[in-house]
Amino acid sequence: MRLSVGWNPWHGCTKISAGCKYCYVYRQDEMYGADVSSRDVRKTANFDLPVKRKRDKSYKIEPEKLVYTCFTSDFLVDGADAWRPEAWAMIRERSDLDFFFFTKRIDRFRVGLPDDWGDGYENVIVGCTVENQAMADYRLPIFRDLPIRHKVIIAAPLLEKLVLSPYLDNTIEEVAVSGESGNDARVCDYEWILDIRRQCMEKDIPFCFHQTGAKLLKDGKLYRIKRYYQIAQAWKAGINYRIGRDGRPEGV
Question: Which of 53, 88, 130, 210 is deepest in the core (most CB within 10 A)?
Answer without folding.
Answer: 130
